[in-house]
Amino acid sequence: GSVGIGFAIPINLAKTVVSQLAETGHVVRGWLGVAIQPLTPVLARGFGSPDAHGALVASVAPDSPALRAGIKSGDIITEFDGRPVGRSEELPRAVAATPVGREVPLAVLRDGKPLGLTARIAQLAEAEEQVVGERPGTGSLGLAVQPLTPEQAREMGLGSKAGVLVRGVEDGSRAASAGIRPGDVIVEVDRHPIQGLRDLKRALEEHRKGAPTLFLVHRDGGSLYLALGS
Length: 230
Hints:
Distance between the termini: 54 Å
Radius of gyration: 20 Å
Low-confidence stretches: 126-139
Structural class: alpha+beta
Oligomer: single chain
Mean pLDDT: 80
Largest sheet: 6 strands, antiparallel
Shape: globular
Number of helices: 7
Strand content: 25-35%
């Protein structure tokens, strides 16, 4: 029987999948090699973007088409193959539908400046899992932090012992509102690498007043940008 729930698949996607299944018996998807996240208005301000359109690159996979093309963490992909990227979820669909081996032009915003790059799309099956770590901060932000030991870095799968480990986050604090969690590892503040507590303290002291504070954290094997409002 029916419970009144239906699902719809875009006709272009359905045609592509059916054609590949008929020709090869399996579906091949394109792979760029970036972990992305939505670009919020606060993050857009922090990265010098005039609006919240595009996909924010949180990390770039090793030996990936994105890495070879010169894409970096913190870039905002605004166009893919000549088509605007309005929202982050549009990029994975566009990449997956791109034929493997095709060279695709990308429009990127880096540090508020436009940049053109070209990536050769690879096959999704070539992607390798990345293992990363975690980090946070202190003071009026509502964070309790400690240095990241080599043992902790190894347990988290981090390639480097650099970073600051978040031990606790105060309920209702600015850090909590931004989404920072205990167990995060802070690796960047305002695009500056954090090697330890001294770097974290300096970055927070030198932060430009009135602008969002940008944190890059490692969490659950991935990278994520978080923004604290001014």
